[in-house]
Amino acid sequence: MTQAAIGFGTQIRRSPYFDATIRWGAKAFSVYNHMYIPRDFGDPEQNFWNLVNDAILCDVAVERQVEITGPDAAEFVQMLTPRNLSKMAVGQCKYILITNADGGILNDPVLLRLGEDHFWISLSDSDILLWAQGVAVHSGMDVTIREPDVSPLQLQGPKSGKVMEALFGEGIAELRYYWLREAELAGIPLLISRTGWSSELGYELYLRDGSRGDELWERIMAAGTPLGLKPGHTSTIRRVEGAMLSYHADADIHTNPFELGFDRLVDLEMPADFIGKAALRRIRENGVSRRQVGLHIEAPPLKEPNATFWAVSKNGAVVGKVTSAVHSPRLKQNIALAMVSPSLAELGTQVDVELPSGSAPAVVVERPFFDPKKKIAAA
Predict the structure, then answer these.
(1) Which among 128, 146, 164 is the end of a domain?
(2) CATH number reported for the structural domain that contains residue 365 in this entry
(3) Which residues does residue 40 pair with via DSSP β-bridges, in sequence order?
(4) Which of these, 314, 351, 317, 316, lies nearest to 336 by C-alpha position?
(5) How far is CA 12 from CA 29, 36, 37, 149, 232, in A?
(6) 3-state secondary structure of 102
(7) CA dist., res. 63 & res. 42, Å (int)
(8) Residue 118 burial by CB count (10 A; 0-12/13-18/19+): exposed, middle or buried?
(9) Domain span at residue 353?
(10) Which of 252, 270, 249 is nearest to 99 (CA)?
(11) Dihedral angle over CA of 15, 17, 20, 22, nearest 10
């Protein structure tokens, strides 16, 4: 089925790298956090192989930053998330969940601590700037909340370290997984973190002056092309292999952390209060009505990721839904993330998935589907 094209307009923001991505082969875009994001540089399978064998550069300026500063910044950020931040050091990053009063997930960002009273929340796709500003209104806390002029790029893949050394010198190799440092490249102000949405070795380069986006892109490509760097887009294949969430698909405001197996990101015993604490305590005590699982779907290779939620059934009764599905050429398998009834979450459980082409058998398997200990990304 032919998909309708997305027209460009002034109501959707363009990233500082927009023109550069067009020059380097971006063929299609979608919208994320009210901005255009490149989604097509040609064959998505080739993009996957470029990522896992070499390196790709992705425009992810859509990962907007919510900057929180002020004397009460640390206390305020803790109020937004059930993850215990009491030991988070300056220069560290953490994957967090932001929850509402019902324990529902509003966003699953990366939190960066630039200073004692200085934080960035690097967003997935939802309006946390407005949420945080609203929470602050009657909080009684002394904080300033704004969206800074910051636009990330992702440099991901096994050769990303060599590209970074070519740009910043050998010392960049000392940057640890989920830590950050401030830097400059030919006078371009940056913050660099050992993070990314790929489950591969990678870095994110946060540009702190949007007027220099074109220059930054070209400098990275000039240094990286001889090392095998290609322009690319975030890989659905690789992120599903790594069981990385896509907000609005695998989680939303009606999803709680325990359904996803994210117990480690919820500390109900810490002294600090946070939004949703009472609700999450009740959910933990009462148990969940569904759980996320991995599936192998026994069918011909999927030609493209799912564009709708596919029903999961057992003995003819609907018991859940597939949230993300794709064919992995490396695993030679159709893999999927799904939400199902807890009684069907045991490994080896047989279910059926209603594909657009008809019903197909599937089996519950471990997730992540590849490199389950995340050794590649943390190397």
Answers:
(1) 146
(2) 2.40.30.110
(3) 28
(4) 351
(5) 12, 7, 10, 16, 21
(6) coil
(7) 23
(8) middle
(9) 289-379
(10) 252
(11) -30
What is the SS3 assignment for 338? Answer: strand
Statement: residue 2 has pLDDT above 70: no
Q: Are 48 and 188 part of one and the same domain?
A: yes
Name the domain boundary from 146, 174, 199. Answer: 146
| Structure-block tokens of residue 26 | 């971006």
CA 77 – CA 66 distance, rounded (Å): 11
Nearest to 151 by CA among 120, 129, 114: 120
294/363 Cα distance (integer angstroms) = 8
CA distance 89 to 115: 9
Length reported for the chain: 379
Q: What is the pLDDT of residues 147-205, one digit of tens each?
A: 999 999 999 999 999 999 999 999 999 999 999 999 999 999 999 999 999 999 999 99
**Which residue in the block uniquely carries the two structure tokens 């080739």?**
46
- Find residue 292's DSSP bridge partners: 339
> How many domains would you assign to the chain?
3
Contact present, 76 and 67 (Cβ < 8 Å): no
Q: Are residues 163 and 214 in the same domain?
A: yes
3-class state of residue 169 by DSSP: coil
- Percent of all residues in the chain with a pLDDT value above 70, rounded to a whole number: 98
Q: What's phi and psi for 50, nearest 5 deg?
A: -60, -40
Task: Please give the structure tokens belonging to residue 44.
Answer: 């998505």
174 residue type, one letter: E
DSSP assignment of 110-129:
EEEEEETTEEEEE--SS-HH
Question: Taking the alpha carbons of 281, 282, 286, 288 in that order, is the dihedral positive or negative?
Answer: negative
Helix axes 73-80, 128-137, angle to 10 degrees: 120
Q: Backbone phi, then psi, for 206, in 5-degree steps?
A: -95, 105
**Same structural domain, 85 and 161:** no
Question: Are 70 and 121 members of one domain?
Answer: yes
Helix (H) or strand (E) holding 337: strand 333-340
pLDDT at 3 over 70: no
Find all residues with CB under 8 Å of 89, minimum gap 6, and list them: 113
208 and 357 in a common domain: no
